C-alpha cells in the first residue's frame, strides 16, 4: 500500500490542499514513526504507524476549510469520520479507524451528544497503541499555513487541550510520559 499515491488520488499534486496535507502528514508520520521504532516491534507495528499517520487527515477534502484548500460542505470536525468512510471504501479498515479516532485525544459518544458535535454519536477514542501514537504525534503539528509547520512544545499542546477539560490534558500527559522518550 502506497499512502502517498492514495493521497494523490484525492488531492491533486500541485494543489494547495495537497501541499498543506502532505507537509503536515509527513511531519506527523516522522514523529509517530520515531516513537514506534523506539518502543520496538514487539509493542508497535511501525510500518502501519507510518502509513496511518500519512493518511490520518485524508478526510479534510470533505470539509469547508478554504484556508487548507478544501471546499467541501462539512464542518472541519467531520474530517475524521469522513476519512474513515473513505479508507474503508479503499479496503483499509485498520487505517480508517485511525482517521476517525485521532480528533484531539478522542471523543466519547457522550461528549458528541451533549455538545451536539457534527459527527455520528459513537465513541471515537484511540484504542490501540498505534492509534494513540498517531493521535499523540498529530497534536504537535498544525495544518495552518500561517502557523508554519514547526513542532509545538508539549506545554502548548496542553494549553490547547485545557479548554476541552482537565481529562483531555490527563490523557495527553499519560501519552507524553509513555511516548516522549
From TrEMBL:
InterPro entries: Diverse_Catalytic_Enzymes (IPR051094), HD/PDEase_dom (IPR003607), HD_domain (IPR006674), HDIG_dom (IPR006675). NCBIfam families: HDIG. It comes from Desulfuromonas versatilis. It holds the Pfam family HD. PANTHER family: BIS(5'-NUCLEOSYL)-TETRAPHOSPHATASE, SYMMETRICAL, SLR1885 PROTEIN. This is HD family phosphohydrolase. Residues 17-152 form the HD/PDEase domain.
Amino acid at each position: 500500500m502506497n499512502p502517498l499515491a492514495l493521497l494523490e488520488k484525492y488531492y491533486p499534486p500541485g494543489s494547495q490542499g495537497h501541499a498543506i496535507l502532505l507537509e503536515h502528514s509527513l511531519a506527523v508520520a516522522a514523529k509517530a514513526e520515531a516513537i514506534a521504532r523506539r518502543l520496538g516491534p514487539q509493542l508497535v507495528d511501525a510500518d502501519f504507524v507510518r502509513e496511518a499517520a500519512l493518511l490520518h487527515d485524508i478526510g479534510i477534502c470533505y470539509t469547508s476549510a478554504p484556508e487548507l484548500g478544501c471546499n467541501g460542505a462539512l464542518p472541519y470536525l467531520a474530517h475524521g469520520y469522513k476519512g474513515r468512510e473513505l479508507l474503508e471504501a479503499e479496503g483499509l479498515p485498520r487505517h480508517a479507524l485511525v482517521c476517525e479516532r485521532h480528533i484531539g485525544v478522542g471523543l466519547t459518544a457522550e461528549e458528541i451528544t451533549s455538545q451536539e458535535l457534527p459527527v455520528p454519536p459513537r465513541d471515537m477514542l484511540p484504542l490501540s497503541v498505534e492509534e494513540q501514537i498517531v493521535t499523540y504525534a498529530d497534536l504537535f503539528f498544525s495544518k495552518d499555513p500561517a502557523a508554519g509547520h514547526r513542532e509545538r512544545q508539549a506545554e502548548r499542546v496542553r494549553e490547547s487541550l485545557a479548554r476541552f477539560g482537565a481529562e483531555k490534558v490527563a490523557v495527553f500527559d499519560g501519552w507524553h510520559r509513555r511516548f516522549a522518550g
